[in-house]
Design brief:
176 residues; alpha+beta; Aminopeptidase; 8-stranded mixed sheet; two-stranded antiparallel sheet; 10 strands; binds coenzyme A
Length: 176
Amino acid sequence: MQSKFLAVGGQKFTIRPLLEEDLPALEWDGEYLHFRLLYRGHYQNSKWGNTRIWVAEAEDGEIVGQVFLMLLSRNEETADGVNRAYIFSFRVKEKVRNIGLGGFMMDFVEDWARELGFTHLRLNVERVNLDARRFYERHGFVVYGSDPGVWEFRDHEGVWHQRVEPAWKMIKTIQK
Ligand SMILES: CC(C)(COP(=O)(O)OP(=O)(O)OC[C@H]1O[C@@H](n2cnc3c(N)ncnc32)[C@H](O)[C@@H]1OP(=O)(O)O)[C@@H](O)C(=O)NCCC(=O)NCCS
């Protein structure tokens, strides 16, 4: 499933599933190199269907946005495979922010999840990320709790890192 977004300024974007050959583009010229293994792992999960990943592709083929949706998690408060799905790793490149692309991607994911019968969308937003929180609130999400935000990942060289990113837990009801 894919969709087209036409910005007011005339720029066109295609929202489509991530392909394996897109994985290097998610590193954003090195800024997210450390997430290489993480993204590959999520890509593998997307092949089994537990996670869905979409990218926004500009007319010249550049990947300028991404959104991940976990359908089933070990933690059912996050995603239970039936009612709750979890949005994460949602990003739009700075040069194309504030033209409605992120909002369009959010609507796209919401429609997709609703179509599958999910009733709630969940996400975590870092407490320091006030802009993103406002964006999500505009899109109908409400804060219902807090999360200490302790998590680990293995970087592209196999080194483990621990991050502490205190976050708000947000939720939105999407049933018809
Ligand atoms: C959060 C994020 C994905 C939003 O993407 P975006 O493409 O800028 O989103 P939109 O353009 O739809 O909306 C952004 C703002 O532009 C405004 N906007 C929307 N459509 C617009 C348009 N056609 N013209 C001008 N402004 C517009 C919205 O009012 C919105 O304002 P708000 O932030 O006060 O709610 C993006 O800012 C981002 O990647 N941030 C960095 C990564 C991040 O924090 N991700 C979230 C992690 S939890």
